[in-house]
Amino acid sequence: MWCLAELDIEVDRKDIGGAFGGNDAPAYRAQNPNGKIPTLIDEGYVIWESNAIVRYLCDLYGTAPWFPADARQRGHASQWMDWYQTALHLPMTTLFWQLIRTDAAERDQTAINAAIAECTGFWAMLDKHLEERSFILGDHISMADIPLGCAAYRWHRMEFDRPALPNLRRWWEVLAKRSAYQKHVMLPLT
Ligand SMILES: N[C@@H](CCC(=O)N[C@@H](CS)C(=O)NCC(=O)O)C(=O)O
User: Fold this and answer.
1) Ligand 1 centre and the CA of 34: distance in Å?
2) CATH number of the domain within which 6 lies
3) CA of residue 37 to ligand 1 center, whole Å
4) Where in this chain does the record put each GST N-terminal domain (predicted)?
5) Is the Cβ atom of 50 under 6 angstroms away from ligand 1?
6) CATH number for position 136
7) 87 and 177 share one domain
8) By CB distance 3.0 to 4.6 Å, which of 3, 38, 95, 174 could disulfide with 115?
């Protein structure tokens, strides 16, 4: 939704999954056999997997800097997007489930500490990368900032003893000034 708003694309949104349900319905599974959200249907073209959707939207409807003109810049954008999915996503999900979706009395402090340590190692990598850059690819925002930008909101809003990562924080505070980010990412954590 953040990506669509940045590209100024109108969308007919249907809430599915979680409290809304419907992601196991045969009609939904026929479009997305993985049964997860999101799914995008664009004039009959169906695509799922959030990062694939972001790449598709930026490729077809975006221009540089969202979809970099240079193949090597696009390669780096994909690199950071895939790195989020394969590295940071798992410990961030553990942290989110423990701190937001588990009652305080039921929380597993050992799992929380391990997830914080793992996330900190990954976020520190990005912090170092951002030392000399305003955004992930350099001077301009791009599709590379979208998956990590969503996770950065959770990282900075969940309550725990967060390590100081000043470049990461500066980058996140710039994202947090964007109206599309405020509208679609900065939502209550539930
Ligand atoms: N790798 C997938 C993950 C999809 C996924 O796990 N979606 C979750 C929400 S973040 C979902 O569909 N949850 C609803 C449910 O399982 O009922 C993607 O990025 O699209």
Assistant:
1) 9
2) 3.40.30.10
3) 5
4) 1-65
5) yes
6) 1.20.1050.10
7) yes
8) 95
Rg (CA), the chain: 17
Residue whose CA lies nearest to ligand 1 atom number 12: 36
Domain boundary among 19, 42, 61: 61
In a domain, 176, yes or no: yes
The answer for residues whose C-beta is within 8 angstroms of residue 35's C-beta and 6 or more apart is 23, 24, 28, 29
126-166 residue pLDDT tens = 999 999 999 999 999 999 999 999 999 999 999 999 999 99
Closest residue to atom 16 of ligand 1, CA basis: 36
Within a domain: 66 = no
Encode pLDDT of 31-74 as tens digits. Answer: 999 999 999 999 999 999 999 999 999 999 999 999 999 999 99
- DSSP 3-state of 41: strand
Range of the domain at 90: 71-184
